[in-house]
Every structure is written in structure tokens, then in C-alpha cells.
Amino acid sequence: MTSLLRSHARSVLALAVLTTGLTVVRADQRDEELQTLRDQIRQLDQKLKVIERKQELKDEDASATAKTTPKIALTDKGFIFSSADGANAVKIRGLAQLDSRLFFGDDGGTLVNNSFVLRRARIVSEGTFAKNYSFQIVPEFGGNSVSLVDANFGVTINKAFQFKFGRQKSPVGLELLQSDSWTFFNERSLVTNLVPNRDTGILVTGDLAGGAINYAAGVFGGVADGASTTNSDFDNEKDLVARIFASPFKNSAGSLVQGLSFGVSGSLGREKTATGRTGGYKTDGQQTLFSYLSTVVADGQSWRVSPQFDYRNGSFGVIGEYVVSTVNVRPSATAAKIELQNKAWQLAAGYVLTGEDSSYAGVVPKTNFDWSAGTWGAFEVAARYATLEVDDAAFPLLASPSASAEKASTVGLGLNWYLSKAVRLTFDYYQTKFGFNSAAPIISGTQFLRQDEKAFITRFQLSF
Amino acid sequence: MKSKILSLSFFALVFTGAVFAKDIELLNVSYDPTRELYQEYNIAFAKYWKEKTKTSTAAGDNVTVKQSHGGSGKQARSVIDGLSADVVTLALAADVDALYDNAKLLPQDWQKRLPENSAPYTSTIVFLVRKGNPKGIKDWDDLIKSGVSVITPNPKTSGGARWNYLAAWGFAAKKFNGDEAKVKDFVSALYKNVPVLDSGARGSTTTFVQRGIGDVLLAWENEAFLSLKEFGADKFEIVVPSLSILAEPTVSVVDKVVKKKGTEAVAKAYLEYLYSDEGQEIAGRNFYRPRNAAIAAKYAGTFPQLELITIDQAFGGWTKAQKTHFADGGVFDQIYAK
Lengths: 464, 338
What we know:
The complex is a heterodimer of chains A (464) and B (338). Chain A is built from two helices and 22 strands. Chain A has 464 residues and is an alpha+beta fold. In chain A, a hairpin with a 6-residue loop joins β5 and β6 (147-158). Chain B is built from 16 helices and twelve strands.
């Protein structure tokens, strides 16, 4: 029994020793494994940190490089090349307008030709140097000959004082000041006949009261109604031009009148030229409705006043302007002076059917027209009424009552399809009614004035 | 009545003086780790200059010194490309030479214009390791061992990195008795252990200290001390190798810029004042080795004694070293591309 117990005890002891030994071996192995795992984790941690740091350095490098790398942008606003800080930039833009003009009811289509017209083809070069100095050069390749539309340079003192020198739009007509690309209709209204177009001079302009008031004032060579300077000044006299335009509610978010802007513009000058004051007033179909006799010369004071407004509320927009243009002319160089006061006004409205905002700077479609994607761009409908009255005193000494109308009124209806921000198709119908001295005889070539002008003008426009 | 006139005269004098006190702005384009040094120095110099230019009728001129820091080579490139630096305080003479070589912004002999070859303070390269030195790094030999991760910036953009490289080269040249093939292999092996190349010394410090990458940072001595001061001696320790290199950061006025800006006199004085007792004290306080013997003695306890090779003795000067090792296609490009 005792020996049996001893034998058991030995066995237990041997087992205990064996177990302890195994435990020690296992603990060592575990420690070793743990150490290996720790090393692996440390190495992986280092690798991860190195990857993160390399990315960090790459980002820092990219950010530093971006600060000095000139930028090139190809957008629907043109090709823009600018220095990294944006202080120097050159922008190349373009405008191309191909029109088709279709006239109805003009005595069987014989009086006015239906035609395709390259209305405008311009390459616009603009730029800024040292942030505050800018330039703009706009040659025109449309029409019958190449001409220069704008060529000016600017100096910005601050937002309130910006100078512009050279050939530029004279700041009188509201619709004229709007870009050709974004007017409600493809042709500007009768009103634009009475305001100066491009003129050469010096303009100071700026925003006051946080942009609530915009002003412009300048001295220009002076041009006739609707005319642009030929880069020659025919007399020593100059025109003073000024405009003030207020958007007093622009910060009243949610207010019905937030998008209301209004103002007044005008010009004052003296003219003494060897030629008439204007080459003629034109209809929306670009037919001459009034012209001075060839012997007429301008001599004396001229002035214009134009109250105007612009209102936008969501998809709806409306503009209105009235112009009175006074000019002193002589039937011939030695004849007595006659003062004429011609007047015009217009009211035009548009509504974007697809919900985009109506804007003085054009509609930006939410989606571009893309057949495969099933998107259609933006559609806008527009309506306009405009009228122009020539002073009775113009007839018969200054203008032929048989060849020039005394009055014209146009109703316009339009549809604009914005295929993208840069591409627009317009479909406009204009019907113009003329007023004549009933006794005036009809002479060859002016028969169309005796009936309403019914013009359907479509335009394919690329503007960037 | 008399007292009123006197008072008025006094105010007129004060006012006139204030009117004639000039406001001067300088731009010091420097290398990466000198931020703290020049922050302190600029204040001292502005005070000195105001006092120096003060007259009985005019208050002294107000000098504001703007600082720009980055990899020394990169900074030199910026000045060449048009950064209007009145003065440059770069990591090595070769980077200042580049201003002459590439843009003739200063005369060729610019280094002779100020004492001590235009190096008002010196430094050297040491190792910064993690507390306890877990990889047992003692000398350059240890840096080529497998599993040792070494942090050093890119010698193509950083002056400090070039000193690091040349110190390693100097050590290997001594170890292998100038056997260039073996020296190249040694330096090549070292750079194989470098996981990331920052563009400047401060970037490498960030990599090692703040991002926790690597086992050892090859650092400017002043940068290593600054890391201990800022991040705690309980986290890092400095290891002094058996041999290193005498780094001589150099300074110069950028003649073309100061002549254009009309800041020549004050820019010159700015650099000259680095050699003054106060300038040397500030250098010492910021862990740069002062040139002034008396002030250097005062800080002797701070800086360890070690064998220092010089760029002229070991490499034939900066022009030669730059061309041989760091120019495009040079030795560094060859070993790093391997």
C-alpha cells in the first residue's frame, strides 16, 4: 500500500514537473510571439506613418506649387490664362451670331430680301495686369467689313473709382449696355436708335453704397443717335455723358422689390458737323425707317435723357426705358437751324419656363441640352412693345415724308432656347406698324414702309 | 506766455521727430531652422537701430524684419526667381553663390565682405534619437544597419541635408581610408534606410518628432537642442557621433534688391550686428556656436567637443562639393537612384 502510494506520488510529481516545464516553454514561446507581433505592428505602424507623411509632403508640395503656377481655364466664359495670384490675366472670348431673316407680307416677298446674315463675329481679348490695369479689344468680323467695336483700357483705383479710356459703349441706353448675347430679343428695340453706341472718350465709373448705386460719368467725342464713332471727331465739341443706376433693395432678401433697379442717364453736348446727325433709324428687321436728307448738318446743342429700370424676380424679368433725344440741325449749312425732339420707349419682359433665374447677364440653364442624357437646357419666352416718334418738324426740310416714317411701333414675341450657357437659339417675330404723313407719295424702294413689317428672325448664337 | 511757447516748441519738435522717423521693412530669406534665432534677433536689432538712428530732433527709424524660411536651396531659388530679399541667411555658401551664378544679385566675392567668411555663427550635425536610444545608435556605422530608419531631408533642396550627407561621407572616407567605392556604398546604404525625404530640415524634424517616424534624425545641432527644449528631454536624446562637419551658415546682403529698395545701409547693419556681442549672445542662446571667442567660451558647456572636418579641407570647398555631389547627375543622384 505504501509502495503503491509512493509510486502514485512519484507519478504525480513527474507529471507536475513535466507540466511546469511545458508551461515555461509555452510562456517563452508566447513572449517570443508577442515580441514578434509587437515588432510587426511597429513596422506596420512605421510604414503607415511613412505613407501618410509622404502624402502630406505631396499635398504641401502641390499647394506650394499651386501658389506659383499660372492657371489655364477653358470654360464657357472663355479661355483664361492667369498668373497664380490672379493679378495678371488674359481672357479670350468669342461671339458668333448667324441670323436668318424672313419677311412676310411684303408684297409677295419682293420688297425686302429674305436672307442669312452673319450678324456678329467677334473675338474678344480682355486682360488684367497688376490687378488694377485692364484692357479690352473687340474686332468685328461680321457684317460687310472688318471693324473695331471696342478698344479700351482701364485703371481701377477701388470699387468706387474705375477709369476707362478709349472706344467703349457710351453709358446711356439700358438695353444697349446689356451684352448682345443676353438681351430678351435677338435685335434691340427701336429705343436703341436714339442713344449713342460706341464712342471714344474717358469714363469714370464705380459702385457706391455697397453696390446699391452704380454711377458712370464721362467725356466723349460725341456721336449721333444710334451711331458709333468712326474714330474721327468732326468738331471741337465734346459730349458729357452720365448715368446713375440704383439697386436700393438688393440686400432685402425675400422682398418683392429686391430685384428692382432704376436710374437715369443722359448726355449733353454741342455738335457742328458737315453731315447729318444720324445715318438713320432702323426697325427690328434692320430696315431703315427714317433718315435725314443728305444736305442736313448738325449744328448746336444736343441732349438726351433716359429714365430706365430693370426688374428681376426669379424666372421673371422686365426692362423699360424711355429716351428723348434733342438735336439742332440745319437743312443745309446756310439754312436756319431747327431743333428736333425725337422720342422712344420700350417695355420688354421675359419668363424662363424651365425655372432658371432671369438675369441681365443671361440665363444659366440648370442642364445643358444633351439628347442622349434627355436634358433640354432652358427655355424663355419674351414679349416687347416699343415705339419711336420723330419730331414733326423734321418733315419735309430735314427728311423726306415719302421715304421716312414719322412713327414706328413694334410688337415682338420671342422664344429663347439656351442649349448651354454659351449656346442660344432665338426665334423672334416682330411686327412693326409705321405712321406717315398721309399725303406723302410712295416712292420706289420705300413701299415696305406703307405696310406692317412682319419679320421672323432666328439666330444661332455662340457666346463664350 | 513763454511756457506756452516752450510747450508748443516741444510738441513741434516731438511731432517733427515722429514725422521724420522712417518705417523700414526688410525681408530676411533664411533656411529652415533659424526661425527662433531670427525672431529674437530681429527684435534686438530693431531696438538697436532705432537707438542708433535717433537724433536730438528725430525719433529713430522703425525696422520691421519679415522672415521667410524653407529649405536653403529652395529659398535661394525663390530669391533668384524674384523674391525681394534684402538679406539672405542661408545654410551654406553654395546657396548664396547661386544668387551670383544665376542672377548676379550680389558680387562674386560676397563672402569676403563680412568676417569669418560671412558666417557669423557655426553649427554641426548630430543625431537625435528616441529616449533610451532603443536601436543603440552611437555613430555613423549604426545608421546603415538593417532595420534602422534614418530621417534626413533632401540634399537637393535642403542645406542641412547637404551638411548631413557630407558629414556621413567624411566619416566613411576616414573609415575606408578614402576608398571612394566603399565610401559611396556606405552613403548609399545610409540613404537606403531613409524612408522619406523632406524638403527642409524643419520638415524632417516634424517627420521625426511629431509624426513619430524613424529611429534617428540627422539634425543641425541647434535643431536637436531645440527639439529637446520644446518637446522634452524625456522623449529624445542627442547622440554625438565620433566625427561630424563644421557647418558654416552664411549671410549676405542682396545688393540688387537693397539698391532698388533703398535699404542698403540698414540691411548691411543688420548683418554686421550679428557679430556684435548681443548678436553672438542670441546665437548662443539659440544653440548656434558663436564665433566670438569670449561668448563661445561662455556656451562651451552646451556644445559637445568632437572631431569636425571642414568643407574646404575635406571637399575642396563648396563649389567643388556642390558640383561633385549635388549637381544634377552628381553622386547623390547616382546613389539615390540605385
